[in-house]
Amino acid sequence: MRILAIADEESAYLWDHFEKSKLQGIDLIISCGDLDPHYLSFLATFTSAPVLYVCGNHDDKYAQIPPEGCICIDDQIYVYKGVRILGLGGSMRYKPGEHQYTERGMKKRVHKLWFQLLRRRGFDILVTHAPAYELNDGRDLPHQGFQVFLNLMEKYRPKYFLHGHVHMSYGRQHKRYDKYQDTHVINAFERCVFDFEDENPGEHIR
User: Fold this and answer.
1) Fewer C-beta within 10 Å: the chain N or C terminus?
2) pTM of this prediction?
3) Cα atoms found within 13 Å of the Cα of residue 111, Cβ hemisphere only
4) What is the rounded average pLDDT of the residues 95-102?
């Protein structure tokens, strides 16, 4: 399964200079948040692949303008072709607003998933907006990651963890790829493509 992961910044390669052939071979599109809903709807129009998304901390407008033809996977485990995908959008709370959570608030969201996690026997891909704590995150509160994401990876050993929020254009030199125990960690900033079955995705992400 070939997956296109996107987040934070609309890709001119896909939107401004679009050719349908650029989505050939893509089986699934996953948005990690903070993208224009019209951009997601645009991609959904030109592919038969499902477009899944979680909300970023700047996605308040989704309530009025939801991405058409796309599937929100926040607070659920979505299964596609046998791959279990858990969605937990939002960022660390740093001011009043939607899609922001304290560490305690994010833990409550995870706790509410206990039955889904039991029924599905875990998950294969964790999709979030924010990174995990001290794993490619920022030390400022708005870009700090969540400890509970580390706990999820330690307990359920998913193959992939996809996130956004920390732009690779920032001066911190955030990584595209990392690994935490058994989990391949991918920063989906703008766009990247990887194969779910790949045992060494860090060498082949493009």
Assistant:
1) C
2) 0.95
3) 6
4) 93
